[in-house]
Amino acid sequence: MASASRDDEFNCNIGDALMGIGDQIDDNLKVVQWMQRKTSSLLTACIKGAKDIMKELTDMSSQLVTMKTAMLSQFAVTVQSSHPDEKDEFLKNTDQEIETTKKILEEIAKKLHEHGNQIDEILKKQKTELAGMDKLLQWDSESGTSGYCSDNAQETKSLQTSVFIPETYLENKNRHTYRFQCPHAGVFQCKITNLVFEMEDKGEVLYRIVSWDMRLMDGLGHMQPAGPLYNIDCFEGSVSHLHLPHCEIALEKQVELDVAHFTCDNVEVIKPVKVTDTHVIVAISGLSLFGLLLDTIFPARHINAQILFFCKPITGRQNLKQLNIHLLPGNVPVKEVQNHHMDFKHINTSSSCVLIPGKNYRPSCDHHTPEPEVATFDRDCGPNFHPTFVMYPKADHVKVSLLDENKEEVWKPHQLYLTGCTESPLLSVDAGAAFVNTHREELIQRVSSVMEIADGLQSKSMISDEMYSSIQAARTSQERMRILYQALTSGGRAVEEEFYGILKQKQPFLLKELESGPT
Question: pTM for this structure?
């Protein structure tokens, strides 16, 4: 009976010891989780709070190491107090528990030490602005790691990106659609919009810029549009990731950027896979409407912006011209603005600048009196792109600069030459090029003698040998015409006019039918 009593007492002691170890581990894990939440909260308050938390985490690491030593000592004491005949059996049965406990404690100490180093490194990189510091550490409660990537060295190596010029065709007066015939899997960037498509296979991608429906933004709190809204379709479903261009300053990492995905009357907010200096990358499973969202709860910051100039003469007024000045975010495609102001001539100049949304600006012009009133720069991403300022200079050239609220130059003076604004560009558009763009779909489907046209264009060096070979290798006339249209888009109006002239020779009856319209 005495032996049985000793066994019961021995088992009780061992059980209590193991339960104590388990309770201590649970308590410390709860403390660690609490410290994680406290760290995130204090980082949003101030850098001093973050330093205090870093010290606490370091102390916690030391405490855990001390606790580990004490617990192992407790095991040793328990073993020594056991009956000699049962000592070997006890050691055998508890060896695995001891090793498991040691590994758990060592892992906790290791992770706390790593997090202390991470916080220390983040604090070294911070500027004076504290808003949004809670985004610096996005803790994962299961892995205990930080998911924030603060510099490009931590990003995975990007795939090789191929730049393409999309086919463009006019759906109505102001809406242009872009078409990309992807030949194979890879990463492709549109030269016009800067959109990037990660393709798992070949496929046809159609996309255009549309208006934001602000009614669907009501349930998104402080989130507001931070770029154009893109309507994207890929019938083969081969797009795996989408890279949306942003215009945030690269150094200001606290900016919160998400992506809105609109389907019917619903909106889904997608968290980025990665945010680079130029793009926000999201994984997608279906296509429709995508646009960048910005959390406006943070103070307004400098962004990459652009100043675009469009000019046209005033009918009946000698030498008087209308000069439209657009202040726009840097991720708005210039071609989209041109598409909506076809009766104006775009004046090329160095348009890049840095502006703050919500702040007031005013242009200064040496040949204009009076100058326009101040206007607020905002993130209006169209697609109508109304001018921010309208001026009426009489001179053939003007010097324009942009001033902020303190009358300091934020865009240095540039000389603009208006001599080319003698007539509306719409009046000089060649009929052949207009016909080629207007009847694109009909011509793709109905032109059969594609190689004859390609021969004519190649003989005048209007398409490259590589493009000619691609047309020749296509299996159907429709595929050949789509490739040929890529050459027309990149070649400009001269190539489109030549294409129209060859069509008129080779297929006059088709042209006559299309020009006469539906009967």
Answer: 0.54
